[in-house]
């Protein structure tokens, strides 16, 4: 049996000291040292074999964190791991305290195509750290070869040739990083994503200093609602782009894991676009698509085929599989305004589902690192700024 761990880690704005990433937002050297210290401790505590990072502005800053993690791991190991001269029983007792350094690990960084380096207007990317290396070169998905047009059909009662409009995107707000990773004899396709946030998109008129909806002294509830609509449309369109790439891998027979910050809960429409449909309990109850009368239903054979077609390309939440088998009734990775929810997820293809008799592996445990999360409705201390505003999640997998 081969065991490995895979984790998602939204680091919250990782960039070097004295560099303005968003307007008027920088880290002093002392603040960066604090953030590096916290991240290194978090990485060492997780000790994950594969880590998907979000909100990485610069690869150098992430490599500095990894070097600090390795230094601490070596110090810890030399202090707690008995040498060859120690009795066998002591080596057995303490061997689980060992932390594997990342000195031989591979790092893939996907910078944001919209990041020009201009101070105050930086845009974050994503990265994957893998102790198992990569099969081939990881792929960055952000700029679309062809614009994605999402047409709308006319509603009933309107003329069929009336233009119902469409939504178009040319680029994802943040890159999706796709990597193939060999663990033992199994090659897994891993996607790391950070979908568009719920922060509203407000359009600045030509020649204006800011969008009118951003002026909270002239509060515009309808305009701000339209900004939220734009953000939701973008997030769902990005989810569809990700979904199309996932299905390509599943159709090729590859096991898939999708990690990251989805900026939505598991049952939000955007998340369900990524994971795919849940099959209907019995398609024999459903009126056929080409029904000629009320008795035209799908046959038992068609029911089984439809169910298999849906299940084959469906993804499953590692969190929910863990909750199902444990006594824990809730997991959260984010808190704001009294709302605790999971917006960071690990989704897995049925190659890892416990009900699949032909599965390649089992998830034996699911770890959540969220002790640093505080509710954003309370006054925030400097700690909240420098630590992440996301909890980290990790799946423990045993391949069969």
Query: Which class of secondary structure composition applies to the elements?
Result: alpha+beta
CATH architecture: 4-Layer Sandwich
CATH class: Alpha Beta
For this structure, the CATH topology is: Deoxyribonuclease I, Chain A
Instruction: Please summarize the sheet with the most strands.
Output: 6 strands, mixed
Task: Please report which band the strand proportion falls in: under 5%, 5-15%, 15-25%, 25-35%, 35-45% or over 45%.
Answer: 25-35%
Q: Indicate the mean pLDDT.
A: 90
Poorly predicted ranges (pLDDT <50, ≥5 residues)?
Answer: none
* Run of helices and strands: EHEHHEEEEEHEHHEHEEEEHE
| Quantity of strands, as a count | 14
Q: What is the CA-CA span between the terminal residues?
A: 6 Å
How are the strands of the largest sheet arranged? 3-4-2-1-14-13
How many independent structural domains?
A: 1
Q: What level of helicity do the residues show? A: 25-40%
How would you describe this structure to a colleague?
The chain has 400 residues and is an alpha+beta fold. It is built from 8 helices and 14 strands. The chain has a single domain, classed as Endonuclease/exonuclease/phosphatase (Deoxyribonuclease I, Chain A), CATH 3.60.10.10. The protein has helices at 29-46, 59-80, 88-94, 221-251, 269-275, 300-312, 318-325, 382-386; strands spanning 2-14, 50-56, 106-110, 125-130, 139-151, 166-183, 186-194, 256-261, 315-317, 334-336, 339-341, 344-349, 361-369, 392-399. β6 (166-183) and β7 form a beta hairpin. α1 (29-46) crosses α2 and α4 runs parallel beside α5 (269-275). The longest helix is centred in the middle third of the chain and has 31 residues, at 221-251. It starts with a strand and ends with a strand. The model has no long low-confidence stretch (mean pLDDT 90).
């Amino acid at each position: 049996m081969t065991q490995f761990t895979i984790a998602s880690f939204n680091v919250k704005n990782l960039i070097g000291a004295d560099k303005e990433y968003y307007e008027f937002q920088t880290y002093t050297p002392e603040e960066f040292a604090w953030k590096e210290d916290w991240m290194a401790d978090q990485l060492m505590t997780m000790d994950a074999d594969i880590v998907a990072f979000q909100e990485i502005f610069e690869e150098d800053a992430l490599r500095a964190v990894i070097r600090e993690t390795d230094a601490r791991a070596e110090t810890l190991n030399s202090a707690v791991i008995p040498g060859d001269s120690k009795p066998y029983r002591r080596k057995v007792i303490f061997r689980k305290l060992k932390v594997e350094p990342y000195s031989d690990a591979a790092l893939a960084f996907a910078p944001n195509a919209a990041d020009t380096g201009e101070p105050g207007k930086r845009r974050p990317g994503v990265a994957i750290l893998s102790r198992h290396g990569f099969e081939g070169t990881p792929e960055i998905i952000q700029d679309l070869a062809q614009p994605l047009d999402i047409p709308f059909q006319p509603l009933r009662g309107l003329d069929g040739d009336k233009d119902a409009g469409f939504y178009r995107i040319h680029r994802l707000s943040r890159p999706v990083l796709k990597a193939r990773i060999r663990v033992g004899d199994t090659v897994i396709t891993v996607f790391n994503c950070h979908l568009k946030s719920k922060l509203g998109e407000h359009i600045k008129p030509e020649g204006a200093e800011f969008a009118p909806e951003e002026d909270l002294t002239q509060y515009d509830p309808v305009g701000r609602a339209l900004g939220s609509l734009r953000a939701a449309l973008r997030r769902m369109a990005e989810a569809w782009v990700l979904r199309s790439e996932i299905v390509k891998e599943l159709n090729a027979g590859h096991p898939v894991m999708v990690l990251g910050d989805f900026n939505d809960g598991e049952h939000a429409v955007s998340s369900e676009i990524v994971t795919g449909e849940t099959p209907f309990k019995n398609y024999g109850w459903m009126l056929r698509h080409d029904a000629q009368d009320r008795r035209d239903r799908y046959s038992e054979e068609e029911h089984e085929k439809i169910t298999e077609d849906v299940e084959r390309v469906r993804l499953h939440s590692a969190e929910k599989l863990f909750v199902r088998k444990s006594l824990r009734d809730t997991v959260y990775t984010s808190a704001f305004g009294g709302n605790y929810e999971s917006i960071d997820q690990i989704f897995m293809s049925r190659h890892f589902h416990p009900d699949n008799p032909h599965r390649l592996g089992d998830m034996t445990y699911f770890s959540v690192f969220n002790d640093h999360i505080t509710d954003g409705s309370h006054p925030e201390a400097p700690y909240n700024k420098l630590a992440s505003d996301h909890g980290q999640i990790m799946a423990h997998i045993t391949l069969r």
